[in-house]
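Provenance

Sequences were taken from public entries as deposited. Structures were produced by running a predictor on each sequence independently, with no templates supplied. The record for Stage 0 sporulation protein A homolog from Alkaliphilus metalliredigens is shown for reference.
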Amino acid sequence: MNGKNILVVDDEEHIIELIKFNLEKNGFSVLTSDNGEESIELVKNNDVDLIVLDLMLPGIDGIEVCKRIRRMDDYDKTPIIMLTAMGEETDRILGLELGADDYMTKPFSIRELVARIKAVLRRSEEKQTVRAIKLVVKDLMIDTEKHEVRIKDQPIELTLKEFELVRILAENRGKVLSRNLLLDEVWGYDYFGETRTVDVHIRHLRKKIGDDQSGEYIETIRGVGYKMK
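Predicted structure for Stage 0 sporulation protein A homolog:
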């Protein structure tokens, strides 16, 4: 992973310095910004492989930065790890719904952050080599080669995690997949988050495929997990 470019966005200088020092020690190239506006310009003008993004920023906050980055053609699937304060649970969930891949709560372990960055990058690279196959469930079509999802031939915009969830559910149609299994498969065995992360992404996925009211595709198995009907 040497040579990967990481953008670190935080308005606390000592945190930027700490993260930058440790990432460079691990062979990464690091760009830094202390505000939302500048971070967006850095993304536009540089090849960025992963973004460490603080939610509380002056001017444009981290949620808005995440929204804008996800609207960029070349960065709609670029991994984002959010940094949040202890009391920002609502913003954290919103960030995950917008497509952030992981989050860490301040204060955090720098070793754990570096480990998560490596894990997220590794999973991102592995998913880029996924075999070419089309999965069809009723009117839902999943093309893993093109990384596309369509319903009645209409394209549906999904985040990377939402795509991986619907792919795994479709590949295991009729089987009940536990939240812990989905965490392992989509976020990786070394993910440090909680199973509610799965619930947040499933809820957002359902809305996008029009399943939140009809329940036509994904069934919740209370106390266990989910299955594709």
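Residues 162 and 205 are 6 Å apart (CA to CA).
The chain has two domains: 5-129, 134-228.
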